[in-house]
Amino acid sequence: MDLGELQVFLTVAKEGSFSRAAERLYRTQPAVSLTIRKLEDSLEQPLFVRGARPVRLTDAGTLLREYAERLLNLRDEVKKGLAELEGLKRGELSLGVNESSIHALLPALAAFREAHPGVQVRVHRMFSRDIPHEVVNYRLDLGRFPLCRATRNCKPRKSSRTNSRWWCRQSIPWQSARKWTWRNWGKSRSSRTLWSPPLPFPARKVIELFARNRTALDMSMEMPTIESIKRFVQMGMGVAIVPRMCVTWELEHGWLKEVHVKQLSIPRHLYIVTRRGARLPHTATEFPAAA
User: How far is Cα 127 from Cα 29, in angstroms, rounded to an integer?
Assistant: First the structure.
């Protein structure tokens, strides 16, 4: 078994067809079939269900696919490491973030690009729960997101802290003062609240606080992203709770205003997560210092 055979195997598994895999690899179909046969002989296991359309993996093939992806990603990691010996004049850095964390990373990304313009930086937006798995399997160099727990294979460290607070349009009359009380909130007709699915933990905490203080909370509108929430709030359609790092630009330009509600400030820590016991690429060791 060699990496070339694994590459052919993964291509057939992805394409679901020997003929399409042959086209993708610029090989003939008999050559692809022969490579798969040799791999199966060396493993003494069938990897594909013959005759199935599209081609389906056997249980052995499903198991091999995960290990094959790790090995090929590790090969790419070696290539990146060798390229970085030129003093970060080139190389790659892959980061995994959730939607809110990307806002906190923008200044660090700008500083890193200015310092190392030859490094290709790829930022992947994904759910927080998926980031550790992608880091462990060498698909990402680093992950940055909230609510991280250490595991056997990944190691988190605190990177920064932010608060989740309420934000409203600057011109709403009832927000002439920075502080707002539960009683005021219950009487206000402008306190329509917008929620975003990527923020379930702060939402739960806020719902509990409102219920505890016997204050009505209008949750009749749900938006898909933080950016859409901010735009809707700027239109005067309600208020929202988002991490402070997501509204820095709007605060500086006076488009949104921070509202401090007594007893309603939710601290959130952001974490950098790396592979436990593994050597980080040079690009990755440089980046957290800026972040």
Answer: 38
The 3-class secondary structure across the chain, one letter per residue, is CCHHHHHHHHHHHHHCCHHHHHHHHCCCHHHHHHHHHHHHHHHCCCCEECCCCCCEECHHHHHHHHHHHHHHHHHHHHHHHHHHHHCCCCEEEEEEECCCHHHHHHHHHHHHHHHCCCEEEEEEECCHHHHHHHHHCCCCCEEEEECCCCCCCEEEEEEEEEEEEEEEECCCHHHCCCEECHHHHHHCCCCCEEECCCCHHHHHHHHHHHHHCCCCCCCCEECCCHHHHHHHHHCCCCEEEEEHHHCHHHHHCCCEEEEEECCECEEEEEEEEEECCCCCCHHHHHHHHHC
Neighbours of 15 (CB within 10 A): 17
pLDDT, tens only, 172-222: 444 444 556 656 555 554 455 655 544 455 556 667 777 777 776 666 777
Give the residue among 214, 272, 232, 226 at the shortest CA–CA distance from 99. Answer: 226
φ and ψ of 26, to 5 deg:
60, 45
Q: What is the pTM of this model?
A: 0.55
Q: Please give the radius of gyration of the chain, using alpha carbons only, rounded to the nearest integer.
A: 25
